Amino acid sequence: MNKQTYDITIIGGGPAGIYAAYYARLRKLNVALIESLPKLGGQPETLYAQKNIYDMPGYSKISGTDVSNKLIEQLHNLKCDEYLETSVTGLTQEGDIWKVSTNKETIYSSAIIIAIGNGSFKPRKLTFDYDKALEKSNLSYFVNDMEEYRDKDLAVAGGGDSAVDWAIHLNDLTKHTAIIHRRNRYRAMETSVDELNNSTVEQLNPYIIKDVQFNADDKSKIDVTLKMIKSDDIKVITVDKLLVNYGFMSDSKILRDWNIELEGPFIKVSQELETNLPNVFAIGDIVTYPGKLQLLATAFAEAPMAVTKALRNIYPGRDYFAHSTSLFEK
Ligand SMILES: Cc1cc2nc3c(=O)[nH]c(=O)nc-3n(C[C@H](O)[C@H](O)[C@H](O)COP(=O)(O)OP(=O)(O)OC[C@H]3O[C@@H](n4cnc5c(N)ncnc54)[C@H](O)[C@@H]3O)c2cc1C
Question: In which residues is FAD bound (predicted)?
Answer without folding.
Answer: 35, 43, 48, 88, 121, 285, 325
